[in-house]
Amino acid sequence: MQRAETLNLKAFKPNLVNYFLPFGIIALVAMLVLPLPVALLDTFFVLNITLSLLILMVALHTQRPLDFSSFPNLLLIATVLRLGLNVASTRIVLKDGHTGPDAAGQVI
Fold first, then answer.
1. 17 vs 18, residue with greater confidence
2. What is the rounded distance in angstroms from the CA atom of residue 76 to the CA atom of residue 57?
3. Average pLDDT, rounded, for the chain
4. Which residues of 62-71 are buried (b: 16+ CB within 10 A; e: fewer)?
5. Does residue 35 carry a pLDDT above 90?
6. How far is CA 69 from CA 5, 8, 13, 50, 60, in A?
7. Domain coordinates of the chain in residue numbers?
8. What is the pLDDT of residues 70-97, one digit of tens each?
């Protein structure tokens, strides 16, 4: 603990949190604009479902409403992430769906 105080690592912690939101927004816009590989899209779907289940379990196990006061913010972030995933998957289906009956079956 003394070493952390001598290095003054606590001063860097707020800066990392403040930089996470802009990078997340840039990543979401990139996901909307750039085509994603199918494997990466599947991974994002799994992470989104896991995040949704985690939010649901935490919301069900809170005793008081103020224990989970960040629920509206997390719900907004999860909804925007799911919207981005829907746009990315729709783009893949529309881009590769005309190549034959099996093309969209590998994506969906």
1. 18
2. 17
3. 80
4. eeeeeebeee
5. no
6. 31, 30, 22, 20, 13
7. 2-99
8. 888 888 888 988 999 999 888 888 887 6
Measured in whole angstroms, how far is the alpha carbon of residue 21 from the centre of its chain?
11
Nearest to 52 by CA among 64, 42, 44: 44
Q: How many Å apart are CA 95 and CA 106, to the nearest integer?
A: 13
pTM, full prediction:
0.71
Q: How far apart are CA 39 and CA 29, in angstroms?
A: 19
User: How far apart, in whole angstroms, are the C-alpha atoms of residue 19 and residue 72?
Assistant: 21
Q: Is the dihedral of CA 17, 79, 71, 62 positive or negative?
A: negative
Residue from 51, 50, 67 nearest 59 by CA: 67
Cβ neighbours around 108 below 10 Å, total: 9
Tokens in use for 98? 């005309």
> Could you tell me the two tokens for 90?
């729709």
Locate 10 and state its tokens: 């606590």
DSSP type of residue 99: G
